[in-house]
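Here is an idea for our session: we take a single protein and study its fold together. Which protein we use is up to you, so please pick one and set it down. Once you have written the record down, we can walk along the chain together:
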Amino acid sequence: MNRRLSMLCLLLSCVGLPALAQSWPTKPIRIVLQFPPGGSTDSVARILAQPLSAALGQPVLIENRPGADGAIAGDFVARSEPDGHTFFLASNTPMMQVPLLKKNPPYDPIKSFAPVSLVGRYVYVMVSTPALPAKDVGELLAYARANPGKLGYGSYSGVTQLMHTQLQRAKADTTLVPYKGEGPTVNDILGNHVQFTFATPASTLPHIKEGKLRALAVLLPARSTLLPGVPTAAEAGLPPLTAGTWAGLFAPAKVAPEIVQRMSRELRAAMQRPEIRERITALGFELAGSTPDEMSVFMQEQLVAWGRAFRDAGMNPE
């Protein structure tokens, strides 16, 4: 009798799994970002939200919660109700920099979240204000060495912080100015309040074409098709970025696996639509989806790579 009862419970639980996936979602879905509006991640999220809303039958809303290197947004999602209605579209900053460089991080990137899918990889461009008398990377570094502390460097992510540390080790004495996101950083370079940074084409390309920003290098192994005349980091003499720059979608850790699987499928289907790919590629963002299991493996690999990159740059937990 006990064995029959156990078998019946198991059968009922298996029947319940597809039913849960079919009934979800029952209300609007929030995708939380660590950045304010106006940057690459925000633009990508808003483009993907449209086909996701149609596929899931509920509005997909973008919620910006910037600050603390993404820890505010990450902590909010990690503590959210695991009912499949709150997700985190995170860059490598909150998922790598926060846990690796904070002695008491508010969450664990592996234990606090359920990976849904890789979303893609960023292209970064080193840009400066044309007001500087430096037309390439070599001249900018020479100017920084001759004028220690006078150049302001806008930093808003793990990538920008890591590159600033590497420039400092190359004896380029610049002042790091922290920002909550890419958009405000670029705006201040346009106003010559800070002089340079690394940013994505989403926020810089129109200004580069208009001559309001100067593109000095791209953080890619080969030149970008969006900026074919701009040298790579290696060509420009910059120290290499040895860890990946990416964005992924995550849910709170205890979300039902069938919800995670369905969200992953719908997201990857949206990314395969030609009109979606065209709009996002124009931003300088390279779409790349994955299964939840593949994203889990990717996260483990990236924690090793970013840990090594931070150690090599002399960046330790604080």
Residues 31 and 62 are 5 Å apart (CA to CA).
